[in-house]
Amino acid sequence: MRGLQWFNALSAGATPVSGLPNSLKVADGVLGDQPVRFIAVVTDPHNRFPRARNGEVGLLEGWGLAKAVDEVIEAGDKRPLIAIVDVPSQAYGRREEALGIHQALAAAADSYARARLAGHPVIALLVGKAMSGAFLAHGYQANRLIALRDPGVMVHAMGKASAARVTLRSIEELEALAASVPPMAYDIDSFASLGLLWETLTVSQIEQPTTDDLARVSDCLVQAIKDVQAGGVDLSGRLGAANRAASAHVRQLLREQW
Amino acid sequence: MTDLLNKHSFVELGARQRAKALLDEGSFRELIDPFQRVMSPWLSRQGVVPQADDGVVIAKGAIAGLPVVIAAIEGNFQGGSLGEVGGAKIAGALELAAEDNRNGIPTCAVLLLETGGVRLQEANLGLAAIADIHAAIVDLRQYQPVIGVVAGSVGCFGGMSIAAGLCSYLLVTREARLGLNGPQVIEQEAGLEEYDSRDRPFIWSLTGGEQRFASGLADRYVADDVAQIQQQVTELLQQGLPTIQRSRQAEHYLQRLAVLDAEPQIDPATVRDLYQGERS
Description:
Strand order of the largest sheet of chain B: 1-2-3-4-5-6-7
Distance between the termini of chain A: 48 Å
Radius of gyration of chain B: 19 Å
Oligomer: heterodimer
Helix content of chain A: 40-55%
């Protein structure tokens, strides 16, 4: 529900955008003094696809996100996009695989990436889980990632139970490893050490933001937009952390040998 | 029998041989080859033996004279999973190909996708690398085609199935599987009744190459034969950019999904009819 709470708080007074699946909350509002579009994926207990009722990113969500972002690109106004991220996972189900959920998520990633390349500042605000394919579709193509500092804010490739099964470990073994290997950890401070976040913020009530929380986050979003407008459209800002040194080293070698 | 003798299996080739097989004779040049030993900094501390190329081969060369970079994933190393180094090799190569195009060199890309997606031992760095790969495909695709090949036998899953969905063209064989979530994970998350990961005919009927092609989610369906795959890749490269990118058809797919009765559990024929109508 955090995603919805933050969406409601940030988009107070904004104009809701219609014609999208009920699991998407989209509104055109103002941040600082500029028009922006807010986008969130939320729970929908009546979702036609039963495996996507708890905020998962599924077929309708992937294609719907693409539509919501494409509308902004087509307007051609370089309006910033604010992706509010609280996505527990992609949808796991037979219907999803059969109908090509990978293609739906590709559409969302495609639209966010094209928006960024077209000069729309794309900012992702992580207020809850940002898991795996769901995050790749909703947030990970942003120019800047901002995370709230809270145990419930989490970026990861797979939930613990499944990760343990796939790597043939117990959950306890997995947790022990995660404590010593930063990219495997589930906490936001370990994630921050990888250099992928632009900023982390502490708020007083993450579940139900106060006026003060809202002001601090809004201000940070405005700063992020300015930072993008002054910089480039690529993701190079994510390289540079010691815990991601190999990523930079490989690129340097490729360039030398190209 | 004659057919068997005349065919050379592509699926049986390793990543490096696949890249060589697609490139014009003598044009293969590997970047960050295994002798440079750029390996995963994360695996050995977890008791996993790293590999000298981290399971990814980057090769420059030409196909029918066109400048190409190939990124080939080795399905036999850690299930073709992408960690920090292998992921950065693919992303970095695609980024340089896009830069080439901005400098007037029309480099295109071919991705040989045999991968389970993120390497869980490097979890968040694998995921970050895959986001970079998505970004780079969308960038390069503005200038030149990016061709995805899923030949088998690993298939293409996880975040890299999204990469496949971003490609300008996608080529599959009967051995190929393409899906977001691996069967085991779906079974774990949703239960045996939803998805029986041990029922291979069921898995292939939903996510196999033939079904993906028949549903319009792949562009070419080819036999497991080096010469035929080489020919199809060449044709697609020469075709240039597609008129409509599959991942840019939100309206179309939303409209198709809107008319689906999502209540009953789904079967392969329903998908083909829904997406392809009379063409299937």
